[in-house]
Amino acid sequence: MVKNYAGFYYVDTGNVLFQCRARGKFKKENIKILTGDRVVITELVPSKEGVIEELFPRKNQLIRPPIANVDQVLLVFSFNNPAPNSELIDRLLIMVGALELDVVLVFNKFDLKAPENRLFEYYQKIIPKTVAISAKESLGILELENLLKDKISVLAGPSGVGKSTLVNRLVPGAKLVTGEVSPKIQRGRHTTRHVELIKLPQGGFIADTPGFSNLDLPKIERNELQNYFPEIKQNRKNCYYPDCLHVKEPHCYIRELLERGEIPAFRYENYLSFLEEISVREGSY
Question: Interior CA angle at 264 toward 262 and 265, to 5°?
Fold first, then answer.
């Protein structure tokens, strides 16, 4: 099912897009059909209309945005206008990691690339699928298309970074409405109002969604947080204390890497901020 709009469910069978209603049993049993669901339909001949009869089990489900059977999340930021926010990048990386989904980290507006791009250069080292593109100028699009092929991908990221422009570039004819970035607040307006799967020419779907409306960290414990920071997870075994949280414990190898510049200050500061957030939630502070 690629879209739920105005009481209808739109089901792509590969050759035909059917406008469907759902059997009454779904409402009776309080079963909500989500974008991304795989379903069985009965075709109402000769029209392109149908009835949803059955719902296949889901391999996963997101709550906000409501979508099912996702393969990966595209976290889209921009080199400039607006400038990338490392705290939001790291927060979203943790959220996606907790959902056990693959991540593709996309930096758009390569044509506005500033001389200093330490964020992009560092994330390239720790996130295997990190790409630089310009949706406007079609730079890096082929590399991204190869990462999207035959997968269901969900877009996420702040407003104004060019998500709708990117979909319009990937899918000629999509004609999604794009928003401008406010010069005053350096943020854009959200232009997407519902969840929709758009078929990609090379195979697969991309979900243009209203975005992740809840940015709270997932329910993880303090000692689990470091598992979402690859540079900490890989080096924590070298700390003197096995349960080191890398805050003020003596002989902490992570802080040694920080002092040597091998872990940048912004990553460590985000880690400490998230650790405090989790501690407050747990009542540990």
Answer: 135
Alpha-carbon gap, residue 52 to 42, rounded angstroms: 7
CB 92 within 8 A of CB 84: no
CA distance 92 to 208: 17
Tens digits of per-residue pLDDT, 271-281? Answer: 999 999 999 99
Give, to the nearest 10 degrees, the angle between helix 141-148 and helix 163-170: 80
| Mean pLDDT comparison of 55-69, 105-119, 189-203, 228-242, highest-scoring range | 228-242
Our count of domains for the chain comes to 3
Which residues, 6 or more positions from 75, have their beta carbon under 8 angstroms from its beta carbon? 89, 92, 93, 96, 103, 104, 105, 106, 156, 157
- In a domain? residue 213: no
Residue 109 belongs to domain with CATH number: 3.40.50.300
Cα angle 4, 8, 12 (rounded to 5 degrees) comes to 65
Structural domain boundaries enclosing 10: 3-56
The answer to whether residues 29 and 69 belong to one domain is no
Judge whether 104 lies within some domain: yes
Whether the ω angle into residue 128 lies within 30 degrees of 0, i.e. cis, is: no
Residue 150 has pLDDT above 90, yes or no: yes
Instruction: Tell whether 159 and 237 lie within a shared domain.
Output: no
| Structure tokens that stand for 66 in this block | 């409501």
Do residue 88 and residue 194 come from a single domain?
yes
CA atoms within 13 A on the CB side of 93: 26
Is 214 inside any structural domain? no
133 and 257 housed in the same domain: no
**What's the pTM value of the predicted model, to 2 decimals?**
0.87
Which tens digits make up the pLDDT trace of 5-59? 888 999 999 989 999 999 999 999 999 999 999 999 999 988 899 999 999 999 9
Buried b (16+ CB within 10 A) or exposed e, 125-139: eebeebbbbbbeeeb
Are residues 151 and 182 both part of a single domain? Answer: yes
